[in-house]
Write a structure and sequence with these properties.
Ribosomal Protein S8, Chain: A, domain 1; alpha+beta; about 20% strand; 3-stranded antiparallel beta sheet; 8-stranded mixed beta sheet; 25 strands; elongated
Length: about 675
């Protein structure tokens, strides 16, 4: 009815010219079409939103996180008069809502509205069908390795590692996503092969003697075995004196048989008894390397070992070769002797004699000069060792000239007086050198004879903490402390205080690779000892280049009470993944070797790397003590070092040192503190 009434109104508005019989028909048809369009607009309805629930939520997440893909999808919907209502990322699910943007003013809006739902749903499904989701499960034993080697995604693909479920999800366009999936599958397969191979492999360590390692190394045993057996690895460990085999059990057995065949052919030339000074000189690392270099240059081979009674065993592939190597060893080291009469022996205790030795070593540095004092019944001998006959003769003449100029006035000797109980005069603080004076007994220091130091003097920065001494009304009581003993007689002490104030022969300092001395203990040493320490470090770096972790170098001590400083490049803590323990171990081992090279009798060591380097204190102290234990086990009978002081300002660190000492050195003594090491002028 509404439609018929509307047509009548339209016809009544039309006029038909009398002279054109067809005009009325044309106008009537146009009027009918316009009327139908207006009726259609009046019947337009906006389509209901589309709810799509079959799309993988990982595809939706990929679209939302990829700006290019998101814009592409939104543009597609816009061309079909639609827009998407994106869900929140925190509430991601499989539902996607698409809303119509059709309006009455759009051309053909009614017909579009009738097909809008079907068309938009189909286009949306087609767009998401171009994406794929691939998921790979990974076993726990290879997860960490695979995760480290996963390829990174791009704008067309997202790679996601789900550690909780040990799965890898790859989402993106099918072609790119499938390519990356195949790449990850290859990575997984390669690590599976490695793991399966390891399961079939064996691992074995065999303890050997040091000379046996040198012989195996000279005979290219490890190289030959690895070239003969592709899946066998052989390692010669010169620190632990082990041969390490890794491979299948069958191949390890065959390699061991060949190793024992080589070792079974070794012959020994045993000679002795050599003097202590010769053994000590040959134990120096630089001398050891020089002799082995001489063997190499002259085509000889031999590996020696120190044995009981100062004997030396030379090992080689035949008795003749061992004898040739032994003769070459003896001719590589030169010895000169100089007799010192009893009247001039006192000069050996003078400061001038110490300076003379330093000068000789500096001038003949490349000749590796070592000077030893051999005590006789009524006289002494100066024994000069070198790798150069010319340098040894030159030093012999210099020392002879030195003693020819001796007079008591020219060589004042520092007194070695012992303070007795009946003496009331307090020695000056400069007299408390561990090599020159004995500490007074407790009975001497009664309240009326000794004035208690002021609080200022007992600061932690330069002296032992107040808790280490007990003050009573009538006398001063020294605390009881524990001393750790090595099997070869060396003493190890722990001290709480400033290590720069210790009056010892050498202090070990922790530095970085460039020796900048700008932080921590290194900076404190420069502040107290003077800029000469920094200059000597800089000179060394200019001449020799930067050092690596585990390396050690010498400088003088400047104004510090010690004689020398050993600068050790201690490792930076990286969670134990960069051989930090081995490098710290090398720092201690090299420090002891170089201290022995200078005939040092006492050495002080802090908890290296525990400051800005971040090394855990318990692990650092344990590694340091283990290195001391291993060094003394091998070299304790020959080394000049007799006192080792482990010092730190942190009491917790000292507790860690003592725990490690109890583990490695079970032999202890409860003794009074025998040395007042902390120097008061620093």
């Amino acid at each position: 009815m509404h439609y018929e009434g509307f047509q009548q109104r339209c016809k009544s508005r039309c006029t038909k010219p009398s002279n054109n019989p067809d005009y009325g028909k044309e106008e009537e048809a146009k009027s009918d079409t316009a009327c139908e369009a207006q009726v259609a607009v009046g019947m337009f309805r906006i389509p209901e939103p589309i709810i799509i629930q079959s799309i993988d939520h990982r595809k939706i997440e990929f679209i939302m996180k990829s700006p290019a893909e998101k814009a592409s999808f939104e543009f597609l919907l816009l061309s079909y008069h639609a827009r998407v209502k994106w869900p929140e990322l925190t509430e991601m699910n499989c539902t996607l809502e698409i809303i119509s943007t059709l309006a009455k003013h759009f051309k053909n809006c009614t017909s579009l509205s009738k097909t809008w739902t079907t068309t938009v749903s189909k286009q949306t499904e087609t767009f998401f069908d171009m994406l794929c989701v691939n998921e790979l499960s990974i076993s726990q034993e290879i997860w960490d390795n695979v995760e480290k080697h996963l390829p990174s995604g791009n704008e067309h693909v997202i790679v996601r590692a789900i550690k909780k479920f040990r799965k890898v999800s790859i989402v993106g366009h099918k072609i790119e996503a499938n390519e990356i999936t195949m790449l990850i599958e290859d990575i997984i397969e390669n690590f599976k092969i490695v793991v399966n191979k390891r399961k079939c492999e064996g691992f074995e360590e065999i303890d050997v003697q040091e000379y046996q390692l040198y012989i195996l190394n000279y005979s290219q045993f490890a190289v030959d075995m690895q070239s003969q057996y592709n899946d066998l690895a052989v390692t010669l460990d010169f620190k632990k004196f082990k041969v390490i085999f890794t491979g299948t059990t069958e191949k390890i057995v065959e390699a061991k048989v060949k190793m024992f065949e080589i070792l079974g052919k070794i012959k020994c030339d045993l000679r002795g008894e050599f003097c202590d000074q010769f053994i000590q000189y040959l134990s120096i690392q630089e001398v050891d390397e020089f002799v082995r270099t001489q063997f190499y240059k002259k085509g000889a081979f031999g590996a020696w070992e120190f044995q009981k009674g100062n004997a030396i065993g030379m090992y080689s592939f035949s008795g003749h070769e061992a004898g040739v190597a032994f003769d070459m060893l003896l001719t590589s080291i030169v010895n000169e002797q100089l007799y010192i009469s009893n009247s001039k022996c006192v000069a050996l205790d003078s400061e001038q004699w110490l300076n003379e030795q330093k000068t000789i070593r500096r001038i003949h540095q490349k000749a590796l000069i070592e000077i030893y004092i051999v005590n006789g019944l009524s006289d002494r001998n100066v024994s000069i060792y070198s790798i150069s006959a010319r340098a040894a003769r030159s030093v012999h003449g210099e020392i002879k000239k030195f003693f020819s100029q001796y007079t008591p006035l020219n060589f004042p000797i520092n007194p070695t007086k012992t303070w007795k109980e009946d003496e009331n005069i307090k020695p000056t603080e400069n007299t408390w050198k561990i090599e020159k004076y004995l500490q007074p007994t407790a009975n001497t220091w009664t309240a009326d004879r000794y004035i208690k130091p002021t609080a200022k003097r007992w600061k932690e920065g330069g002296y032992i903490k107040p808790t280490t001494r007990t003050w009573k009304k009538d006398k001063y009581i020294k605390p009881i402390a524990k001393t750790w003993l090595t099997r070869t007689g060396q003493s190890i002490y722990t001290l709480v205080g400033d290590i720069t104030c210790l009056d010892v022969d050498v202090i070990v300092n922790s530095v970085n690779k460039n020796h900048q001395l700008k932080q921590g203990l290194a900076r404190l040493m420069v502040d107290k000892g003077g800029d000469i320490i920094r200059r000597e470090c800089n000179d060394y770096i200019r001449r020799n280049g930067t050092l690596e972790e585990g390396d050690v170098m010498w400088t003088s001590a400047g104004d510090l009470p010690c004689k020398w400083i050993l600068h050790a490049v201690s490792p930076v803590w990286k969670n134990g993944r960069s051989n930090e323990f081995g490098n710290l171990y090398d720092c201690i081992w090299q420090s002891f070797g170089k201290a022995y090279r200078r005939e040092c009798s006492s050495i002080a060591i802090p908890a290296l790397s525990t400051g800005i380097s971040g090394f855990p204190a318990n692990r650092s102290t344990d590694t340091i003590v283990k290195a001391i234990h291993d060094y003394m086990k091998k070299n304790g009978h020959y080394t000049s070092i007799q006192q080792v002081y482990l010092c730190d300002i942190n009491t917790d660190t000292i507790d860690h040192f003592e725990s490690a000492l109890d583990l490695y050195f079970p032999y202890t003594l409860l003794t009074d503190y025998q040395h007042d090491l902390f120097h008061s002028d620093i």
